[in-house]
Amino acid sequence: DTAVSQTPKYLVTQMGNDKSIKCEQNLGHDTMYWYKQDSKKFLKIMFSYNNKELIINETVPNRFSPKSPDKAHLNLHINSLELGDSAVYFCASSQGTGGYTFGSGTRLTVV
Amino acid sequence: GIQVEQSPPDLILQEGANSTLRCNFSDSVNNLQWFHQNPWGQLINLFYIPSGTKQNGRLSATTVATERYSLLYISSSQTTDSGVYFCAVAPNAGNNRKLIWGLGTSLAVNP
After folding, report:
1. CA distance A15 to chain B (A)
2. What is the CATH number of the domain that holds A100?
């Protein structure tokens, strides 16, 4: 009965590959987010969708592309992976501006 | 943009002790949340508290919006309280779903 579930939990891949991370929430929330946490634990928002509409699009390389097929799903596709993309990526959801619920994170390692 | 400063950056407690964590922000906010990231990386929302006081078990939080700070109180600390505590805010001017995060307070509770 996981509220926000991300897959995969771990992802090790070579430079130049393309990969996707999936996120699903069963809380009925209307807003979903992707965050990146770097090695120093700093959290930075990347994207947010509200009812399938992109509402936050931070300055990230255009190799990163979010996709929200419905309000319960928000996927993140990354093209041409680089070493600097290694981080933990968190998905989260909220109802309006209320409290966030986070997924357990995807640890991406690019070698 | 808005600045979020958390103090202290690091804290070591003996089990059973109480502590207060502080979050200062440089502009008026309409969204403020406290999170705990446990040693396994899981991010848990503790409070959604843009103003006022809330309590949840041994934890309580107070936000004085007019003075631009929030406090998180941990009473009778337990080893399971260890981890990093983050404060995140969204300024009044702008997208109130776009949280700006502090650098966190790293707490270690020793048995």
Report:
1. 25
2. 2.60.40.10
The candidate with the shortest Cα–Cα distance to A105, out of A28, A42, A11, A26, is A11
Question: In this predicted structure, which of A98-102, B7-11, B78-82, B89-93 has the lowest mean pLDDT?
Answer: B89-93
List, in order of start, the domains of chain B with CATH numbers: 4-110 (2.60.40.10)
A 21-80 residues with CB below 8 A of B? Answer: 31, 33, 41-45, 48, 50, 55-56
Domain that holds residue A12: 4-110
pLDDT of residue A9: 96
Task: Burial-class residue B76 by CB neighbours within 10 Å (0-12, 13-18, 19+).
Answer: exposed
Q: Which two tokens stand for residue B101?
A: 């995060």
Residues 6+ apart with CB under 8 A from B99: A45, A100, B31, B33, B88, B89, B90
Structurally, how many domains does chain A consist of? 1
* 16-55 in chain B: CB under 8 A from chain A: 30-31, 33, 35, 37, 41-45, 47-48
- Please check whether residue A2 touches B, CB under 8 A: no
Reading the block at residue A95, the tokens are 């109802």
Residue B41: per-residue pLDDT: 94
